[in-house]
């Protein structure tokens, strides 16, 4: 065995690469010439704010919990559902996606999703924070409470774990029949052109404290000139937000950005790549429901970081999101079990695990907005609908969404997104429209059902269209460049051997 | 010499082994197999996908014996493996031409 040290020439190449990178960043900064858009810098009150130790600790723990959702949680949940010959392939795909997105997020993903994009800000961030430029241990990021900040590095890594799991969800749709090289290329393109923009649309608010202050001023202003001035100020600060955030869409932890987004991309992939060889003829039963149960349970635990962590602080709303995540999931697990028992005659382990995931998906956008009873109802409702989609609709339409990414994540996500618009209503135990979400249309302290549902519908529709159409283009592109499908012989042999040269099980 | 090959229900293996030991048959080979017969299969449902599982798990045992032991062996297996339900299995008897014990080189009757 030999290990080669980098040669002097190798070091020179590395150095040139680093220099190019620095030049690239400087050029990007010069081009955007953005006003200091960092939330902390823009808000005078927040400039002096110091992160709370408890908040910081909670955000770092939450980030680790969300990583655990992907590996091993999602990997085992999916892995158990495929045949033994493709187990290592699914595990490798999830692990590799997590690792690749971690790199991409650090290089430019965080910047595209969470920095100011100048005139493009409603649509996409800029490159001012590429290569983590300007982010150190003293940088801060705003939270939902005015004047409360957390270290930007904790926000960076928390959001990174979301960017890791979302594309990993997609692989379930075309599991057992895609080349590993195609997965990697597609996911690289997908996070760049689909995920980062949508995360920016929904979650980027440059200076939430300013928005809140302007909205309060508007509400307090008397009629006439004062009101006009206050409105103008509000319009100005709301210019620096993603367009769906600006449209008043509520998505607490990523129902649109993560689940609808991944779900529709999965469906499009299943349609374009086509059915597995032998689909509808061969036995394709899950090879280990034990693994699937372990995975689903890890997802449930990790989801507390995902949902309760999305509050960005450790406070009462965090506890609300935590409790909602618990009760909605319990309700959904139970209602899937019972629905299947009634319809198919037997209560199944796969059913209760699927129900738990559907409940987690549905409660994601609602977790910080609904009350616990609202979340429970949401959980009870989502499972029968998802069950209908994964059994009746899928069979009727004949697409091979292998692990039901569309039926569970997209459909569950849509129910959650629309349900959030209903359950946020204080009359139903929801928290109401709080000031940081008040941007256009819906004012703080008010709740207008129609306006809210239009906002939610916009977010759902925009995500379906952008991700659906964008993914279709990317699949076609990847098909041209490396080819999507392995040969039929390779697929029959199993992707473990044909793609990775190893088996998950040697027994 | 004969080989008696029996396909039995998996949970009957220990009883069959005990019965064979009792009549002086001290060696047998066991294989986990799947098969299809009058018992048919069952249906498994995974979310929306229903699979008719035709091949059911069974145990195949093989014993090599002297020809005069065949009836006794068949009786022992039959009585131990019988439940009276469809799916109890079958017994096949096959001629055995030659046998060798690898360790000693003993042949035929001495090798059994």
Automatic annotation (TrEMBL), chain B:
Entry-linked InterPro entries: N-reg_PII, N-reg_PII-like_a/b, N-reg_PII/ATP_PRibTrfase_C, N-reg_PII_CS, N-reg_PII_urydylation_site
Residue list for modification O-UMP-tyrosine: 51
SMART domains named in the record: P-II
GO molecular function, one term: enzyme regulator activity
Biological processes, Gene Ontology terms: regulation of nitrogen utilization
Gene Ontology annotations for the cellular component aspect, listed alphabetically: cytosol
Pfam families found in the cross-reference section: P-II
UniProt keyword list: Nitrogen fixation, Nucleotide-binding, Phosphoprotein, Transcription, Transcription regulation
Quaternary structure (record): Homotrimer.
Family indicated by similarity: Belongs to the P(II) protein family.
Entry function: In nitrogen-limiting conditions, when the ratio of Gln to 2-ketoglutarate decreases, P-II is uridylylated to P-II-UMP. P-II-UMP allows the deadenylation of glutamine synthetase (GS), thus activating the enzyme. Conversely, in nitrogen excess P-II is deuridylated and promotes the adenylation of GS. P-II indirectly controls the transcription of the GS gene (glnA). P-II prevents NR-II-catalyzed conversion of NR-I to NR-I-phosphate, the transcriptional activator of glnA. When P-II is uridylylated to P-II-UMP, these events are reversed.
Protein name: Nitrogen regulatory protein P-II
Organism: Bradyrhizobium canariense
């Amino acid at each position: 065995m030999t290990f080669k040290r980098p040669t002097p020439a190798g070091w020179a190449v590395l150095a040139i690469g680093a220099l190019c990178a620095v030049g690239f960043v400087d050029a990007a900064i010069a081009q955007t010439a953005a006003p200091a858009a960092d939330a902390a810098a823009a808000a005078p009150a927040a400039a002096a704010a110091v992160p709370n130790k408890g908040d910081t600790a909670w955000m770092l723990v939450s980030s680790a919990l969300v990583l655990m959702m992907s590996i091993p949680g999602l990997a085992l949940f999916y892995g158990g559902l495929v045949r033994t010959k493709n187990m290592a392939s699914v595990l490798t795909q999830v692990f590799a996606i997590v690792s690749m997105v971690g790199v991409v997020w650090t290089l430019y993903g965080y910047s595209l999703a969470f920095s100011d994009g100048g005139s493009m800000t409603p649509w996409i961030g800029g490159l001012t924070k590429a290569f983590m430029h300007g982010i150190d241990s003293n940088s801060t990021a705003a939270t939902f409470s005015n004047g409360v900040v957390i270290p930007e590095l904790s926000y960076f890594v928390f959001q990174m774990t979301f960017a890791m799991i979302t594309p990993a969800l997609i692989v379930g749709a075309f599991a057992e029949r895609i080349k590993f090289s195609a997965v990697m290329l597609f996911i690289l393109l997908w996070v760049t052109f689909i995920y980062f923009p949508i995360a920016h649309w929904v979650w980027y608010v440059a200076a939430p404290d300013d928005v809140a202050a302007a909205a309060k001023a508007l509400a307090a202003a008397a009629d006439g000139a004062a009101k006009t001035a206050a409105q103008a100020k509000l319009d100005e600060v709301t210019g620096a937000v993603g367009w769906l955030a600006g449209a008043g869409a509520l998505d607490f932890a990523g129902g649109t950005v993560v689940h609808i987004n991944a779900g529709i991309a999965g469906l499009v992939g299943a349609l374009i790549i086509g059915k597995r060889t032998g689909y509808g003829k061969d036995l394709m039963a899950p090879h280990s429901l034990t693994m699937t149960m372990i995975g689903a349970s890890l997802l449930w635990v990790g989801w507390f970081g995902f949902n309760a962590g999305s509050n960005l602080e450790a406070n009462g709303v965090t506890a609300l999101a935590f409790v909602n995540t618990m009760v909605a999931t319990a309700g959904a697990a139970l209602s899937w079990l019972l629905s299947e028992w009634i319809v198919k005659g037997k209560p199944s382990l796969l059913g209760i695990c699927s129900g738990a995931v559907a409940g987690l998906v549905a409660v994601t956008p609602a977790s910080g907005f609904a009350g616990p009873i609202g979340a429970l109802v949401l959980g009870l409702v989502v499972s029968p609908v998802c069950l209908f989609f994964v059994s009746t609709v899928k069979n009727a339409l004949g697409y091979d969404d292998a692990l039901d990414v569309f039926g569970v994540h997209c459909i569950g996500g849509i129910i959650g997104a629309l349900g959030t618009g209903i359950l946020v209503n204080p009359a139903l135990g929801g928290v109401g429209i709080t000031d940081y979400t008040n941007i256009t249309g819906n004012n703080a302290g008010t709740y207008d059902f129609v306006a809210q549902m239009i906002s939610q519908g916009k977010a759902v529709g925009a995500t379906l269209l952008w991700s659906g159409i964008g993914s279709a283009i990317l699949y076609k592109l990847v098909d041209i460049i490396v080819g999507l499908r392995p040969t039929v012989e390779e697929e029959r042999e199993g992707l473990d051997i044909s793609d990775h040269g190893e088996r998950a099980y040697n027994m | 010499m004969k080989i008696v090959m029996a396909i039995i229900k998996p949970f009957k293996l220990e009883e069959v082994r005990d019965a064979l030991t009792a009549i002086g048959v001290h060696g047998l080979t066991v294989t986990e197999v799947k098969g299809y017969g009058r018992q048919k299969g069952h249906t498994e449902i995974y979310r929306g996908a229903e699979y008719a599982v035709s091949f059911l798990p069974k145990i195949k045992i093989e014993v090599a014996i002297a020809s005069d032991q065949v009836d006794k062996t068949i009786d022992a297996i039959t009585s131990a493996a019988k439940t009276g339900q469809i799916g109890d299995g079958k017994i096949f008897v096959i001629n055995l031409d030659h046998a060798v014990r690898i360790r000693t080189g003993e042949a035929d009757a001495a090798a059994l």
